[in-house]
Amino acid sequence: MSPTLDISIVVSVYNEAEGLAHFWDELKKQLSSDPNSYEVIFVNDGSLDGSVQKLETIYQSQKPSNVSVKLIEFSKNFGHESAMIAGIDHSSHGAIICMDADLQHPVEKIQELVNAYKSGHDIVLTKRMSRADNGMMKNLLSRTFYSLLNSVSDLKFSSNSTDFFLISAQVAGILKENFRDRNRFIRGFIQQIGFNSTTVNFDAPARAFGESSYSLKQLFSLAVGAVFAYSNKPLRISILLSIVFILFTLALAVYSLYEYFNGDTPPSGYTTIIIFLSASFSALFVVIAILSMYFEKALIEQRNRPIYIVKKVLD
After folding, report:
1. FRET partner for 175 with CA separation of 20 to 30 A, picked from 122, 149, 196, 256?
2. Strand extents, DSSP E, 49-204
3. How far apart are CA 160 and CA 162, in angstroms?
C-alpha cells in the first residue's frame, strides 16, 4: 500500500455563487474516496454576487474526514493570477493543485495529477484538448496567443495549457520566494523553472453555471502581459525598425542630393517627403509604444506594491 500524501487544492473564485455548491458536491465526492489528506483553499477574489456567503456555508458544512477547508477573502478584485499565488502562499500541505470552480477543470482528473506526482514529477501540467462551449473565434485566439508567445520568447510553452496544474512543495517554495512579479503568468512560470514535468490531457465540458469572467479585453491583456514578461524581442524589433529607417533616410538623402546636382530636372519631392514622414512617424510611434510598455512593467515592479491584500482568513 502506497503512503498517503498531504495535498492542497487552491480554488480561485470570482462571481461563482451560482455553481459553487455543485462544485463542492463534486469535489467532495471525488476526494472522499481518496486515501490522501486534502486541504481545500478557496480564494474569493472580490466576488460581488454572493460567493462569500456560499463559501462560508461550505466552510461550516460537513466535510469528509480527509478534507479540511480554508477560506481567503481579498479586500477587492486582484485578478485570477493573484488568487492562485495567494492560495499557494497560504498552503500548508505538500503538493499543490490549482484549479477553477466552474467545473471546466474536471475534478475526476485530480487523481490522475496525483498519480503523476507520485511517479516522480514535480510539475504536472494539463492540456485542454477541446472545450465544449468554445467557438471558432476563441479557438483561433488561443492558437494565436501561443503561436505569438512562442515566436517571441526564447522559451517554448505548451499550447492550450491551463491554470489547472499540480506542483510539488519544492516548486511552490520557489514561487513563494522568487517569482513575485506583479506582471504574472503562473502557468508560464512553472514551465520556465525546470524540474521533472509531465502533461495530463482533458476535455473541458461546457460551463454549466454563470458566465466566463474572462472578457476579450482581459484575454488580450493577459496575452500582452505574457509577451512582455517572457521576451525582450519587441525591444530588438524596435531597434531593428530604427536601423531600417536610418538606412532608408540615408538612401533617400543620397538619392535626393544626386538628383539635385546631376538630374536633368529637380525632383518635385512632395509625394516622397509625405510618404517618408508618414512612414517614419508611424515607426517612431511603434518604437515609443514598445518602450512605454517595458517602462510601465518596470515601474510597476519598482513600486513593489502588494500582489494581493487579504481581508479575512477562515482556517
Report:
1. 149
2. 67-74, 95-100, 123-131, 165-167, 197-204
3. 6
pLDDT in tens, 140-173: 666 666 666 666 666 566 667 788 899 999 998 8
pLDDT tens digits, 172-215? 888 888 877 776 777 777 877 878 889 888 887 776 665 655 55
- 189 lies in the same domain as 272: no
| CA distances, 41 to each of 104, 110, 161, 199 (Å) | 18, 15, 22, 23
DSSP 198-231: EEEEEEEPPP-SS--S--HHHHHHHHHHHHHHH-
Q: If you compute the radius of gyration of the chain from its CA atoms, what whole number of angstroms results?
A: 25
C-alpha cell at 203: 476535455
Tell me the HSE value of 136 on the side-chain side, using a 13 A CA sphere.
0
Q: Are residues 166 and 264 in the same domain?
A: no
For 291, phi and psi rounded to 5 degrees? -65, -40
- Residue 252: φ, ψ to 5°: -65, -35
User: Which cell numbers hold the place of 76?
Assistant: 477587492
Phi, psi of 220 (to 5 degrees): -65, -40
Please state, in angstroms and rounded to a whole number, the distance separating the CA atoms of residues 7 and 140.
35
Give the 3-state secondary structure of residue 311: strand
Say if 101 falls within a structural domain.
yes
Instruction: Verify that 240 and 207 share a domain, yes or no.
Output: no
Domain span including residue 271: 233-303
User: Tens digit of pLDDT for each residue in 114-133?
Assistant: 999 999 999 999 888 776 65
Residue 130 shares a structural domain with residue 22 = yes
Q: Which amino acid type is present at position 17? A: A
Same domain, 287 and 310: no
Q: Which residues contact 126 (CB under 8 A, 6 or more apart)?
A: 105, 109, 113, 161, 162, 164, 165, 199, 200, 201, 202
